[in-house]
Amino acid sequence: MTATPEDRIHSLAIWHGPIEIAPLVGGITNRNYLVDNAGRRFVVRLGSDIPVHHISRTNEVAASRAAHAAGLSPAVIHHEPGILVLDYIDAKPLSAEDIRRPTVMARVVSLVRSCHRDVARHFRGPAAIFWVFHVVRDYAALLEAGGSRHKPLLSSFLEIAERLERAAGPFQIAFGHNDLLAANFLDDGKRLWLIDWDYAGFNTPLFDLGGLASNNEFSEAQEEAMLEAYFEAPVSDDLRRRYQAMKCASLLRETMWSMVSEIHSDIEFDYSSYTAENLRRFESAWQSFRNS
After folding, report:
1. Model confidence pTM above 0.70
2. Which domain holds residue 38?
3. What is the pLDDT along the chain (292 residues), one digit of tens a residue?
4. How many structural domains compose the chain?
5. Is the dihedral of CA 60, 66, 70, 73 positive or negative?
6. Of 61, 69, 220, 239, which has the fewest beta carbons less than 10 angstroms from its beta carbon?
7. Angle at CA of residue 199, ends 33 and 261, nearest 5°
8. Which of 32, 60, 87 is where one domain is finished?
9. What CATH number does the domain containing 24 carry?
């Protein structure tokens, strides 16, 4: 008889007395639960390695610990294969609308800069890298081998990725979060937290900034404000074009992530609609980049 997620959580040796378990909404690479135990609350994340998405849970634990040491993320309480237990933060996730507000954007950008500047100082173990252009090439191979319905698009995607990689350099390297969805920012009323380090690794800061803007549907003016706040200087034409290339790459990767998930994920989620939405946004960004 296969153990249920609740069975696995109950079996952990870290609990003191009875526990109460409630599922948390969200999470499309893992399943999340809120656990009450002896007057404390914890978040339990259930998820194994996902090689097709370059997700290593060992790396996620190392990044989570480093982010906590840098003061950005809740503490890791316990981990074992397939299970990560984190301290619970009583906070609400931000929405894209929240992040687009100037006062909130300023706080978000400051937190992202702290991630890029501080987390690497605390990261231990083999260096993890998240290089979007490698990910795109690997996704293309997976989609080809898996008989994806999107195979006719792959040669165009690979050609575009090569053009974007040339346009986006030279590259500064920092420790990136690499998945800056609005819901990965929590506001406890006093400060912001950054959570979910599944994809964390060394990368160019422009990838995170491009992802932040595209995931939260920034206007051109908001993108300009974000870049000026991050770099604390006016935005040059060269920086703006390199940033736009990385934003396109971020959208291409998210589109192909969903395409791969259509044929490899067993989590209940409407990947087909998610693919269509991201493909639309990628094509719009690519046309804008070509015409700039």
Report:
1. yes
2. 5-87
3. 678 999 999 999 999 999 999 999 877 788 999 999 999 999 999 999 999 999 999 999 999 999 999 999 999 999 999 999 999 999 999 999 999 999 999 999 999 999 999 999 999 999 999 999 999 999 999 999 999 999 999 999 999 999 999 999 999 999 999 999 999 999 999 999 999 999 999 999 999 999 999 999 999 999 999 999 999 999 999 999 999 999 999 999 999 999 999 999 988 889 999 999 999 999 999 999 999 8
4. 2
5. positive
6. 220
7. 75
8. 87
9. 3.30.200.20
